[in-house]
Specification:
Number of helices: 2
Strand content: 25-35%
CATH class: Mainly Beta
Oligomer: single chain
CATH superfamily: Cupredoxins -  blue copper proteins
CATH architecture: Sandwich
CATH topology: Immunoglobulin-like
Radius of gyration: 13 Å
Number of strands: 6
Bound molecules: copper (II) ion
Distance between the termini: 31 Å
Shape: globular
Structural class: mainly beta
Length: 101
């Protein structure tokens, strides 16, 4: 059984215009929350719950939680490197990277 505090794979590389789907295969809740300073300047912020900023996502964590068996997806239109994390489990190292070519 996979570690329940890990994004797998931790780093993905995709083409511009492709969509990443995060499916919660664990039995606890998680978020997908972009680091506000790790999104390319010309790209849209993303976070489960649909927040427009990291601050908003952190202020309303419960609205961004992805339940077991549920998924969150985001389409990446701009090339660059995007860093994100799970708010409840960041301290456990639950972080990931999307590279868009
Ligand atoms: Cu988590």
């Amino acid at each position: 059984m996979p570690d329940s505090h890990t994004f797998a794979p931790k780093t993905v590389t995709i083409e511009s215009g492709e969509t990443v789907i995060w499916t919660n295969e664990s039995d606890i809740q998680h978020t997908v929350t972009a680091y506000g300073d790790e999104v390319p300047n010309d790209a849209a912020y993303f976070a489960s719950g649909g927040f427009g900023s990291e601050r908003a996502a952190r202020n309303r964590i419960s609205e961004g939680l992805i339940a077991p068996g549920e998924a969150y997806e985001h389409q990446f239109d701009r090339p660059g490197t995007y860093g994100y994390y799970c708010i409840p489990h960041e301290s456990s190292g639950m972080v990931g990277t999307v590279r868009v070519e």
